């Protein structure tokens, strides 16, 4: 998200696919994805939806996985269209989470600076510190609610994908928290 921020903050008409592909390659090289096979990595692509007036890059960006035979016979175009819709929604949710996290970090630094600035004086502006504390509590509540909603969304997605032949593999990929907890759980003796 940090790498995409400068590029996707531009107007949608000012975004170029080759710039986003360069950002994608940089991100892949900086992550564990660089250890995936070249066949998988070469199929990752950037897709830009048709831009309308007033849209930003965030609104038109999507990661696309180019399907080739024999995989494209098993996964129809309709499933890929569903994938693009889900990606767009989840990418917007990720952007909101990223923005909230950035605001949280900035606000936590401000609370610390306010506290340091007023240390040692006779009067502390309790109303400003109280307001900052209230903001911190509200941000914590928002983050907790967001996590709860995301878990509910993943559960709903699992339920809907049970009868579908198209989405079980996507559901597994979306539930990365469960996978992460399993892979990092300490051994029990």
Automatic annotation (TrEMBL):
<dbReference type="GO" id="GO:0005874">
    <property type="term" value="C:microtubule"/>
</dbReference>
<dbReference type="InterPro" id="IPR040457">
    <property type="entry name" value="GCP_C"/>
</dbReference>
<dbReference type="GO" id="GO:0051321">
    <property type="term" value="P:meiotic cell cycle"/>
</dbReference>
<dbReference type="GO" id="GO:0007020">
    <property type="term" value="P:microtubule nucleation"/>
</dbReference>
<dbReference type="GO" id="GO:0051225">
    <property type="term" value="P:spindle assembly"/>
</dbReference>
<dbReference type="InterPro" id="IPR042241">
    <property type="entry name" value="GCP_C_sf"/>
</dbReference>
<protein>
    <recommendedName>
        <fullName>Gamma tubulin complex component C-terminal domain-containing protein</fullName>
    </recommendedName>
</protein>
<feature type="domain" description="Gamma tubulin complex component C-terminal">
    <location>
        <begin position="134"/>
        <end position="180"/>
    </location>
</feature>
<comment type="similarity">
    <text>Belongs to the TUBGCP family.</text>
</comment>
<dbReference type="GO" id="GO:0043015">
    <property type="term" value="F:gamma-tubulin binding"/>
</dbReference>
<dbReference type="GO" id="GO:0000278">
    <property type="term" value="P:mitotic cell cycle"/>
</dbReference>
<keyword id="KW-0963">Cytoplasm</keyword>
<dbReference type="GO" id="GO:0000930">
    <property type="term" value="C:gamma-tubulin complex"/>
</dbReference>
<feature type="domain" description="Gamma tubulin complex component C-terminal">
    <location>
        <begin position="1"/>
        <end position="110"/>
    </location>
</feature>
<keyword id="KW-0206">Cytoskeleton</keyword>
<dbReference type="InterPro" id="IPR007259">
    <property type="entry name" value="GCP"/>
</dbReference>
<keyword id="KW-0493">Microtubule</keyword>
<dbReference type="GO" id="GO:0000922">
    <property type="term" value="C:spindle pole"/>
</dbReference>
<dbReference type="GO" id="GO:0031122">
    <property type="term" value="P:cytoplasmic microtubule organization"/>
</dbReference>
<dbReference type="Pfam" id="PF04130">
    <property type="entry name" value="GCP_C_terminal"/>
</dbReference>
<dbReference type="GO" id="GO:0051011">
    <property type="term" value="F:microtubule minus-end binding"/>
</dbReference>
């Amino acid at each position: 998200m940090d790498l995409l921020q400068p590029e996707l903050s531009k107007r949608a008409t000012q975004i170029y696919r080759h710039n986003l592909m360069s950002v994608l390659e940089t991100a892949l090289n900086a992550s564990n994805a660089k250890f995936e096979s070249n066949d998988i990595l070469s199929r990752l692509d950037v897709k830009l939806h048709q831009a309308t007036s007033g849209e930003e890059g965030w609104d038109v960006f999507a990661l696309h996985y180019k399907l080739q035979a024999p995989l494209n016979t098993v996964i129809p175009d309709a499933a890929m269209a569903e994938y693009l819709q889900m990606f767009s929604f989840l990418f917007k949710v990720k952007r909101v989470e990223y923005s909230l996290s950035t605001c949280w970090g900035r606000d936590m630094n401000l609370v610390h600076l306010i506290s340091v600035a007023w240390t040692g004086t006779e009067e502390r502006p309790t109303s400003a510190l109280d307001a900052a504390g209230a903001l911190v509590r509200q941000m914590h509540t928002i983050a907790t609610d967001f996590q709860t909603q995301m878990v509910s969304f993943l559960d709903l997605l699992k339920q809907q994908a049970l009868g579908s032949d198209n989405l079980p593999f996507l559901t597994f990929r979306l539930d990365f928290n469960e996978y992460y907890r399993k892979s990092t759980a300490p051994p029990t003796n």
